[in-house]
Amino acid sequence: MECVKPLRIALTKGRLEKFSIEIFEKIGIDTEELKNKGRRLVLSDKKNNIQFVLVKAVDVLTYVEHGAADIGIVGKDTLMEEGIDFYEVVDLKVGKCKFALASIPSFNLNEGYNRKKIASKYPRVTREYFRKLGIDVEIIKIEGSVELAPILGLSDAIVDIVETGTTLKENGLVIFDEICDISARMIVNRASMKMRVDEIKKLINDVQEVVNTRG
Amino acid sequence: MPKGGVEMEGLNKYIPEGTRDILFNECYSKIEIENLLRDVYKTYGYHEIISPTLEFYDVFNMNNQPISQEKMYKLFDNRGRILVLRADMTTPIARIAATKIKKEMFPMKLCYSQNIFRVNEILNGKLSEFTQSGVEILGVEGIRGDVEAIYTGIEALKKIGLKDFKIEIGDSIFFKELTENINLDESKKETLRLLIQNKNISALKEFLENNKENIDKNISLVLERLPELFGGKEVITETRELLNNLDNITSLRCIENVYEVMEKLGLSKYIAIDLGMVQNLNYYSGLIFRGYCMEVGDSILSGGRYDRLIENFGENLPATGFAINVDIVLEALRVQGKLKSDKGVQKVVFCKAEDLDKGYALLKAIKSSGIKTEMALFDSEKEALDYCGKIKCECLINITDNIEYKIINNEWIKSQYKF
């Protein structure tokens, strides 16, 4: 059955935006509107019947979960923190970074019996990491510049995303453990996957191929 | 001391997040859908049941419970025992089957249409109270029960006028059978299962590569393809080839058999196969299925076989069933433009207060001829006529003065009325 409704793809604004556009360009999607978006929020490729929307990372999940967007491009960090199951069909291998436990050099996780305070923008990831270790910690949610927390004595350590490690180094923090790798993922709404099988399978294959050839 | 305003009012003008008031046409449509679904079940011989809104927490607290405890609304009864607002219907029906229904009554088919309560994350746009309409088929094993459930589900969705929906079928045993003889511990198998459930193709490849000494070559090939093994009947053929016609995988046969029945019934356009459906392995014990349609992102129907559930209540009964999420189906029908609105009133009767007896006698007479009619609740004929305009009713009978008003060319035309 021919489907007139365009395939909607929600892209994460900011860091991942450029990478996503590159990939879609390589598979022959017209990204002209995306690149010259101005103040428009919905950008289309009419020829391929695709619509793009640019939203914040967490909102990508919300749009895709409700089926308002069929497909989303979002960081693994957001997926882990929100804890919602999606079809996570392609690892785009861009926007690479990792979750790490970091603190001032004198920090020792196993020292003493006092409950350690851990500051993070990612409380769920933090909780699961420490549960796996079997360590009881107090988690403090911080919205930004998490590196400050151990320096000012708000927390004993932090769990945060580390890309190059420069910010940590410049603020005198060191990594104590690398929790896991993160990169951008392509996710698909469950109903869309089943109702638009051919279109989406093709898109997945095309994108996967671009990822493979880039190595 | 609070001086009026917001503090004094409290929340008395608001409703909790995740709940809603359903008014007029929406209410009409919802009830209409529930009735249509109920009709389908009943004409196929299902018995409707009602279970309490409140259940003991213990009913839902079991190994492999499908709904985690933080998703249930809890309260205490007058003796301090934990109660929950019914968090699904299958569990209470399992309790009823094991404790209330006489053994010789099985096999038995039950249906229901009740509200379900789940605690949602704040502001995620999902309902905390929603209606499920569904069936449970108790005491039947294998294809007989599976076909009955899927056939009834399709008929139900067709009956309410839903277009372009798909029921996808899979089998929770399939993954178990595939991984039975591979040399991985349970936690690794669980990792593998999650990768397949979430169609995490690249990570799955990596996992299989890292564990290749422990997994048979043919099995590994199927596992790797599993996230993409969905679609039509060709999926079965491809899997057979990949498995090199290994015939000890009984679940594949199972899916194929059900598919073939549906095909012969001319219903295959509603059926898709997804061998990568591997959720909740400890709860489901055989064929599982889910319904989707284009207009909504959530599944509209979900169901499957749960032969081990009723054990928790002391009886060993195989069972299968499904639940349709009425609120989501309602949304899908609305987008498809398939919602019918309530028929308006065709006649309004007006009378002076002292003639109320006459008025209601007339009302009854008109109604008995099958015409939808209502009494005007006004003291003057003018107000009654205005009301007719508001509700788009084109006929008013003033029984006090024996006058009939009809709209002709947008104007009220008066004539003599004889009762």
In short:
With 215 residues, chain A is an alpha/beta fold. Chain A has nine helices and eleven strands.
Written overview of the protein:
- The complex is a heterodimer of chains A (215) and B (419).
- The longest helix of chain A is centred in the C-terminal third of the chain and has 18 residues, at 197-214.
- The mean pLDDT of chain A is 93.
- Chain A has a six-stranded mixed sheet with strand order 2-3-1-4-11-5, with helices on both faces.
- In chain A, a hairpin with a 4-residue loop joins strand 2 (42-45) and strand 3 (50-55).
- Chain A is α/β, with parallel strands linked by helices and 215 residues long.
- Chain A folds into two domains: 7-95 and 183-214, Periplasmic binding protein-like II (D-Maltodextrin-Binding Protein, domain 2, 3-Layer(aba) Sandwich); 97-180, Periplasmic binding protein-like II (D-Maltodextrin-Binding Protein, domain 2, 3-Layer(aba) Sandwich), CATH 3.40.190.
- Chain A is 36% helix and 29% strand.
- By secondary structure, chain B is an alpha+beta fold.
- Chain B folds into two domains: 24-335, BirA Bifunctional Protein, domain 2 (2-Layer Sandwich); 347-416, 3-Layer(aba) Sandwich (Rossmann fold).
- Chain B has helices at 5-9, 24-43, 57-60, 90-99, 142-159, 172-179, 186-197, 201-210, 217-225, 234-242, 250-264, 326-335, 356-368, 381-391; strands at residues 47-48, 54-56, 74-76, 82-85, 108-117, 129-138, 165-171, 230-231, 271-274, 287-293, 301-305, 319-325, 347-350, 373-375, 395-398, 403-408, 411-416.
- In chain B, the strands form three sheets. Chain B has a nine-stranded mixed sheet with strand order 1-5-6-12-11-10-7-9-8, with helices on both faces.
- In chain B, helix 2 (24-43) packs antiparallel against helix 5, helix 5 packs across helix 11 (250-264) and helix 8 packs antiparallel against helix 9 (217-225).
- The N and C termini of chain B lie far apart (64 Å).
- The A-B interface holds A 1, 3, 5, 62, 64-68, 85-91, 188-197, 201, 204, 208, 211 and B 124-125, 164, 166, 168, 197-203, 227-228, 230-231, 272, 274, 292-294, 296-299.
